[in-house]
């Protein structure tokens, strides 16, 4: 079987978020000498995602059609298919409206249709990782031999599609099923993963990357469909390195849509296995049982040879970690968004600070102090 492709001139897309490309492809069902040409117009269509869209397409037959089908031969297409672009081919939806045309002299003829592109098709394809799908029609005579002409329409989803906006992002590790903002592992521990819960409005593509110690380790491209929350995680390959002892920070940086907040960070500590005596770190402010706000400064006496500190806040009732913050300063203030999202008004919490050296060894820690969120 022979395949021949015919190029179709296109129009430039506008600022819409989804692009439809039409190309003509002729598949010979028999060894005919004459070939039929077909074009689809427009050959490039821009439509928005997140809604049903109607697009009018005109198919034109010309040149050698009559040499194969003959002038006056009724040619039909029973349906249009929204298919995946790569094997195995999956049909996402069907347009069951038939088309028919009778080419005249020279095989010339025209038929037009208005295609409804369902938003559900685009969402299903994108969630399946299929960023290109085909709208396909097959034209053939009712009786007798001849050619079957297939016109695929490629629908390419833009990565900036939709009206996705960000509310907040929570990062965490899972330790025996419990969520933690910081975790300690031994050197060369395998399988360490970080997770990000992304709270959004609307739907569309999210682009970003995972960063460890300021170094990008993995890109993230994810389509979020009309949900309030999506979860992404670091993959097993290349994974998070635990080769170098010390304290390491992990960030999830979102580049599109642009967030209105700084990338959140969590920390993991890689230990070398060597142990040394832990000194007592004196907490300075706030006082025990004090009510705290986003204006409250948590301070402590600097530790000798200390490179970084982790301030941990836990519920007094069950020891569950509400927040763990990494800082190189001798003080910390809880940002207002974290105070609102991580803590509960009227609940008692404990806070303590631990100091680490450049190799990730624990040098000092304070005794826990009580605090209350008013």
Verbal overview:
With 374 residues, this protein is mainly beta. The protein folds into three domains: 3-157, Sandwich (Immunoglobulin-like), CATH 2.60.40.10; 165-271, Immunoglobulins (Immunoglobulin-like); 279-372, Immunoglobulins (Immunoglobulin-like, Sandwich). It is built from three helices and 32 strands. The chain has helices at 65-68, 119-127, 336-342; strands at 3-6, 18-22, 24-28, 37-41, 44-47, 53-62, 75-77, 80-84, 91-95, 99-101, 109-117, 132-141, 147-157, 165-175, 178-180, 182-186, 195-201, 204-212, 215-224, 229-233, 246-256, 265-271, 279-280, 283-285, 290-291, 298-300, 308-315, 321-327, 331-332, 348-356, 362-365, 369-372. The model is unreliable at 1-35 (pLDDT under 50).
Give the class from helix and strand content and strand pairing.
mainly beta
| Shape summary | elongated
CATH architecture of the largest domain: Sandwich
Question: What would the CATH topology of the largest domain be?
Answer: Immunoglobulin-like
Q: Name the CATH superfamily assignment of the largest domain.
A: Immunoglobulins
- Give the helix level as a range of percent: under 10%
Low-confidence stretches: 1-35
How many helical elements?
3
The overall pLDDT, averaged over residues, is 78
Cα distance, first to last residue? 77 Å
According to CATH, what is the class of the largest domain? Mainly Beta
Please state roughly what percent of the residues sit in beta strands, choosing from under 5%, 5-15%, 15-25%, 25-35%, 35-45% or over 45%. over 45%
The biggest sheet, with number of strands, parallel, antiparallel or mixed sense and barrel status, is: 10 strands, antiparallel
